[in-house]
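the two lines:
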Amino acid sequence: MTPRERFLKVLNFEKPNDRLPMVEWAPWWNKTIERWNNEGLPTGMTWEESLRYFGLDPLLMINGSAISPECPRPSSHGAPIITDEKSYEEIKQYLYTDSIIDNIKRAAMGLKEKHDKGEIIIRLWLDGYFWFPRTLFGIENHFYAFYDYPELMYRINNDLTEFNIRVIEELFSILIPDMVGFAEDMSYNHGPMLSYKLFKEFLTPYYQRIIPLIKKYGVKVFVDSDGDITRMIPWLKEAGVEGVYPLERQAGVDILRIRREYPEFLMMGGYDKMVMSKSEKEMRAEFERLLPVMKSGGYIPSVDHQTPPEVSLDNYRMYVILFREYAERAVREDG
Amino acid sequence: MDKKLAIIHTTHVTIEPLKNLAAEFIPEVKVINFLDDSIEDGDYYDPEEIWQSVQQGMAKVLSSAEGYNLVAIGITSMAETGLLVNLEDGSPYTPFIPWFDMRAMEQTRFIEANIDQLEVFSKTGLRASYKHGLPKLVWLLHKKGKLPCNVKWLSAADYIAFKLTRAVATDYTLAARTFAYDLKNNAWNVELLEIVGAKAI
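prediction for all of em together
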């Protein structure tokens, strides 16, 4: 089977005939790559070449972010770019631009042939309705903006929806990605960073506008949110979202519980990155933990965030060997 | 004028100098993972090892920033990671228990069963979790039977501040992450501490 066929089979709760897909949804840390280069990993490879080097299925991303590279950057991480309606107006020339759409189309054209052949899997990144206003307002002011600037928040998310619709229409005319992931990061290690009330008022209406459009093409819709997302799964389902990643174990996410409580909900990630610097025994035990869900379908196993620099190249090679073993077992054994 | 920033991340120690608080970071000097899983009962961080790395990292940063004045040190936290410190001689009484360690599950259920959950939520904004400092402290109480009266729970950031200044102090936000701090009244939740057999000192 091709990587793409395996991936789509699993998203449709069907079993691939050889093994589950073996993907990395997020690139490794630069410090991890530096370490591996020092330990013998060939230098100068592209992301796709690196994945093939390790025998992984290439899951590549098309970036559909609404912010152009020319947009002024915040003065520090999490600092504001806008403060009110006026500053939003001023910054808009850098948002939702034609050049972003052109870049997306160009990226799609470059990947189309391999994608059509099933050699690569494509995930489309779209800015989400929590993530995007936070990027503009900055982390702290964003929380106040729900109360101080509700009209502006509606407006921003409405503008973003119009842009996201445009991305879908333009991109999907070239190729149909295998999944769409809305960047959100709206949970921390104790759960959601906003209440259900705020989610329903400020996010749900926009999801409910755009998701039916994506589903029309048969593409599965995920939300990308670090932290413990367990409590917000019913909210996501109500908004039309079909799956979530990366399911951070360290934050307490239990994918067996999620599978039990929401049998049809899609998942990607879930492998505890913190065990990858330990022994084979511990890495194997982590795969054993995930195996029942791997067998149940609708779950793309992957590291639950970027592989950290404590992980040696030898350990990563061991991880891949074990990954293959369990990816094969998951389709061979009864779920 | 230069400002120095010492950062303790959620799983790492990083020492970075900042030219000013709004400027970009100079690439980090040191990144080490201290996770020690060789001790029975779960994961630990060795406080002495962390402190030594903070010292080494700061010395390296300071020596590379000649001509600038050190005007401030900022210490971020490792979420709810914490330890017990002996106040008499300043020595760690326990290693750090990482925030993500699940050993205090049973103690969390004990706390949940013995509190009005809504009332505590209204005071803390939090639901009971094994990640907080209080259930970890209760786990230590249960494990050791009794704790000396001169030991105190400090978060990772509090511990580094203590090592730098010898002052025992915390921040409201870090206090809140113990689950034993009443944000409404800016005071320790004495009632809750009594339930678990601890006290504010």
